[in-house]
Amino acid sequence: MTLLPESAVINKLTRKALKCEPITFREAQILLSSSDIISLASGANTITRAHNGDVIDVETLINAKSGGCPEDCSFCAQSSFYNTAISKYPLVSKEIILERAQEAKKQGASSFCLVCAYRYPPEKDFQSICQIIEEIKKQIDIEVNASLGFMNFDRVRKLKDAGVKRYNHNLETSESFFAQICRTHDFADRMNTARIVKAGGLELCCGGIIGMGETSDQRLELAFAIASLAPDEVPINILIANDGTPLAHTARLDPVGVIKTIAVWRFIMPKTILKIAGGREFHLKDSGRFALKAGANGIITGGYLTKTGNESHKDILMINELGLKI
pTM here? Predict the structure, then answer.
């Protein structure tokens, strides 16, 4: 039997994704192992443009409550289990959050996400957050998203009523690798909150982190688990090895492997907003431009909770130079 060249296989699977026909795990393995990164990136870009056009979703975050999280996620500088040199503070004031939302709008962001280091927000904080979101929606023409930890149905409905569009709750890593990353909750807990978010009427943002020591198959396992939730947005984070955490000395990823992962995730999830997020400046550097032509159609700009990022105006310029839109 004659084997098809890599480019022919990639073209065949591109046609499947263009018709939103799901690819199999084995087909995803073939794509991820391909040495033809140019054809792979081109196929992913074709899929992205066909389903999402030329628009890039630009999002800014605010770390509205930092540190003291009771979960032991090995990657996280905000976990109370680890001694990391970060600023720790309670929920910041309404005025500060409104100022940051206004700044995000002026700098060209299309969405603004409130992120807080909770397992489950205390009722007082939750009520304050809902009030702040209502005020943002009254004063500023920007989409508001939130990431506040585990949720129940009633709270999801309250966030929706306050004006939240999309809720972020990442799976973080594959089910088969999860116990090596976190022991204070399990993979099923994360899946459950993601399902509650959708049941409550909010759009779902659900992604994960690559580069934590997982295998290539486990990266695909994570992607297929995320795809099973039919999320509206999928952030791909690349581990930033924080000093003081168990993953502090994890090896840096090869940019080619990161680009290939982004591209293959696009084949798995043809229509979603696929967003390159934490770690892109550190791991990809100039390859961040390549990522926006290799399957990604979203970025987080200006920083990532405890780490700084590209200045927003530089990211906007990059997008414009690529002939893409905001």
Answer: 0.95
